[in-house]
Amino acid sequence: QVQLVESGGGLVQAEGSLRLSCAASGRTFMRYVVGWFRQAPGKEREFVAAITRSGATTYYLDSVKGRFTISRDNAKNTVYLQMNSLKPEDTAVYYCAADLRLFGSAKRYQDIHEYHYWGQGTQVTVSS
Questions:
Q1: Do 1 and 117 touch, CB atoms closer than 8 A?
Q2: For residue 39, with 0-12 CB atoms within 10 Å meaning exposed, 13-18 middle and 19 or more buried, which class applies?
Q3: H or E, element range at 38
Q4: What is the 3-state composition of the chain as percent helix, strand, coil, each rounded to the nearest 5?
């Protein structure tokens, strides 16, 4: 089992940047796929980005491609989400999620139901 703690959220102006961190407990973090999801008020939680165990492959929501970068440091048990050129529509609570058994297609990595471990979330607010 793994426990996840997000940090790095805050208030930023449009076109600004933030870097979110997801720190994990345990010695087997490298065996987990990790994803970032977000939920805006009144909306369903949606996929933002995911990274495979080695970090060799990443997946992104179309609207964040070219602006967000997901990366991981397995030695530090941490996954990052670098967010640049932020827009007001990026405002949401951002959640880190992980799963030990997830394999397969890109569609599965983007599926919220494939992830069994979740952090508590960190608020990101982008002002116009």
A1: yes
A2: middle
A3: strand 33-39
A4: 15, 45, 40
- Which residues does the chain have with pLDDT short of 50? none
* CA–CA dist 119, 87 (Å, integer): 24
Of 128, 125, 122, 123, residue with least CA distance to 4: 122
To the nearest 10°, report the CA torsion of 42, 12, 3, 76.
Answer: 150
Question: Rounded to whole angstroms, how far apart are CA atoms 83 and 73?
Answer: 17
- What are the pLDDT digits (tens) for 21-53? 999 997 789 999 999 999 999 999 999 999 999
Facing residues of 33 across strands?
99
